[in-house]
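In keeping with the milestone schedule agreed at the kick-off meeting, the structural modelling team has produced records for the first pair of proteins. Each record is given below as a sequence line and a structure-token line. The laboratory manager (R.T.) confirmed that both were archived under the project's standard naming scheme.
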Amino acid sequence: MMLDTNIDIDLINKRMVSWTASQRIGWALTNLPKQHIVSTSFGAQAAVMLHLMTLHKPDILVVFIDTGYLFDETIEFSKHLTSTLNLNLKTFRPLLDREKYEKKFGKVWENGLEGLELYNQNRKVEPMQRALNDLHAATWFSGIRKEQSPTRDQKKFIELSNNRYKVSPILDWTSKDIDSYIKDNSLDYNPLWHKGYVSIGDTHTTKSIYEVESIEQTRFFGLKRECGLHE
């Protein structure tokens, strides 16, 4: 797949600073190549990005990676949003189910940073790359925000990587912006949010804010913040 890389990304990123998230999405859908997809983890605030995207393109492909280790609440939330927003959901899973994976690797996520990196590569990154390739995605929309982690502070609204555009329309949104949008549009948080889970991933690498001493420790035992999908 060959992309038209004549778009002046630096110029567009500068312009997008003063645009709304809706304007950023509209421009990208009009000017960036198909296939367009949006990824979601059905995490705490997933409803915001999904609602914004489906307002512009109701049938956009929604990619969800089911690692096999998600909370029951997350699975139920995915069903709820799929129904209420009529999502065109495409679920991808790792090559090995839980039983086969643990037989081969054991509880590798318990083996420090190196184990976490291997786990995330196997259970998240590989399925996502397979999804992007199988769906022939040329433009990938994501709901990441700078406020979520220091590693995202240098991200741009539009980036070009691996022959694919990555668009982050709510990159500059604050938690207050998110909360206001959810209330104004009668949307829901993942139920775990109300139990103190500020960042929601797999059961064995996610803690509520009430179980740890700092917000950094709520994911991956405080060893890292990113799962690899947006690095």
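The second protein of the pair:
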Amino acid sequence: MTRRNTYHHGDLRQAVLAAALGVIAAEGPGALSLRDLARRAGVSHAAPAHHFGDRTGLLTAVAAQGYGLLADALAGVGGLRERGVRYVRFATEHPAHFQVMFQPELLRADDPDLVAAKDRASAELRTGVTGLPDVPDPRTAGIAAWSLAHGFATLLLSRNLDGPLTDRDPEELFRALTALTFGTGAPGGTGTPEADDGPDDSPTR
């Protein structure tokens, strides 16, 4: 029995997604080809199109999966500093998802699975939002915190922090940056790294 005939429906879909994540991590989303992914996954040429429709559908599925993983990573975590750390950790553990999630031009914005996953991530990001202490505009402060976490993660993934980090643990450095940016209240677990109404293409929309 060939590999093409051994997949169950869900396994085949996951196999194509896994192959796509490998390509994205190595070469970026622009390198994706449904035909090439079918070859990598050992399935028929028609299989990726059957499950995802087209390249946009596949990238949308990657983003939806990523938002679900982000929601899982943030579940039950409180405080500005540790939510930011989890955000950075998610980016380093799932770099291919992270590349795709925040490029709305690659995605089908009204896809139900994507919308549901983003909503779940948003709910986790907003859990316990009461605003940072002594901050007159929590929304702006939240955007600043999200920018700090997202920017740090992006610089880390692109290896632009290799020099400044030297032997320092990235998560510890991020904790220190959070304290510098938001004051001594941040390490104590007050506040969160999210805006209560962020950009349309962010998980905090």
